[in-house]
Automatic annotation (TrEMBL):
<dbReference type="InterPro" id="IPR036928">
    <property type="entry name" value="AS_sf"/>
</dbReference>
<protein>
    <submittedName>
        <fullName>Amidase</fullName>
        <ecNumber>3.5.1.4</ecNumber>
    </submittedName>
</protein>
<keyword id="KW-0378">Hydrolase</keyword>
<feature type="domain" description="Amidase">
    <location>
        <begin position="13"/>
        <end position="186"/>
    </location>
</feature>
<dbReference type="Pfam" id="PF01425">
    <property type="entry name" value="Amidase"/>
</dbReference>
<dbReference type="GO" id="GO:0004040">
    <property type="term" value="F:amidase activity"/>
</dbReference>
<feature type="domain" description="Amidase">
    <location>
        <begin position="263"/>
        <end position="372"/>
    </location>
</feature>
<dbReference type="InterPro" id="IPR020556">
    <property type="entry name" value="Amidase_CS"/>
</dbReference>
<dbReference type="InterPro" id="IPR023631">
    <property type="entry name" value="Amidase_dom"/>
</dbReference>
Amino acid sequence: MVDPFIRTFEDADREGPLGGLRLAVKDLFDLAGVPTGAGNPRWAETHPVPDEDAAAVALLRAAGARVVGKTITDELAWSLNGSNRHYGTPDNPAAPGRVPGGSSSGSASAVALGLADIGLGTDTGGSIRVPASYCGLYGLRPTHGRVNLEGAVPLAASFDTAGVLTRDAATLRLAMTALLGKAPATAPITRLLAPRDVWGEIPESTRAAVWPAVESLGLDVDDAPLFAAGEEAAPLERARVAYATLQAREAWETHGAWIEEAAPEFGPGVAARFKAASGIGDAEVAAAGLVREHMRALVAQRLPEGTALAIPAAPAPAPRLGEAPDREAIVRLTCIAGLAGAPGAAVPAGRVEHLPVGLQLVAAPGGDEALLALAERA
C-alpha cells in the first residue's frame, strides 16, 4: 500500500459550513511552516519554507475545513497518471492494482480511501477530472481565474485552476462555494449537448457505461456535432495539439530556468515532456493560439447559458499500475474546457468491467454554480 500523504497533521477543529470536514492538500499548495515539494524533492530543497497558507487553503480553513495532510502529486503537476518516481503511486481503492490518476493523485486517493472528505487539487489539463473518473469521485475544475492561485506552484498559467475532489456532490458544492465566493446568479442547466462527433471517438464499453448517466439527468439532449462540418479533419486532435503546445511553452517558461540551474531528477515521462517543451518555437505557439481563440468562440456559441456539454471524463477506466495511459485520447476530452477557460465537473457515471468511469459536464465560463447544481442531480 502507498499512503497518499507525504505528511499528516493534527489541525484544530474549526467552525463554519465545512466544520468537521477533513481536508487533504495537494503538495503544490503552501501550508505555513511546511515545505512545499511540488512532487519533486529538489523543489523543496531549493525553495524557502512558506510562512503563510496558499489562498485556496486559507479559504477552505476559514470555512471550517481541517487540514489532515499534504498529498502526493505528480512532479510539477505535469502528468495524468498519478505515478511519482520519488514517492510512489497512491492507492486507488475503487480500482485496486490501477493508478488513481494525476496529477492530483494523492488528494483523490485520500478522499477515495476515506482519509479525507475534501481533496484540494489543481486542474491544468484534467488533473481533477481524470482522477475523479478513475476513483469514482466528484470533482470540479472551475472557470479559469475564479479561484485564487496565490501560494500554489504553477505549471501553465493560462490553464491552471484549483478545485476539489469529494465523495458526494453536496460536499463538492459546499467546498467549491468557499473557493469561488459570491457570483451573479446564473440560469439552471436545462439542456445537454452530447455531440456525436465527440462520443464517436469513445470506446464502445465507455459509451455504454456513461450514456445512461446522461439520460438520467432528465434534460433535453442534443447530439448535434460540436464542430462544424466544414472544419478541417480531426478537429479534436487539432485542439489537443494546440493545448499541448501552449501548455508546454508555458511550462518551460515557468520552470525552464529552475530546471537548468537545479538539475532535478524527473521520472521519464515528465523529463521527456520538459525536454520537448524547451524546443517549441514561436510559430507553433502562434498557430496554437488561433486554435484556442476558435475553441473559445465555439464554446461560447454552442454552450449558451442553460446548456452544458456532456462527454466522458476519460476515454477508459484507470490503467493498470505500470501500464502507459493513452494520454492523447484523454487530453482530447479534457482540452475543450482548458482551451475555453471553462468549468468542467466530473461525476461518477458507471462501470466498465467493475471499474469506475465518469461523466464530464462543461459549461461556458462563469457557469460554475450551475454545474455544481447539476452535479447534485447526477
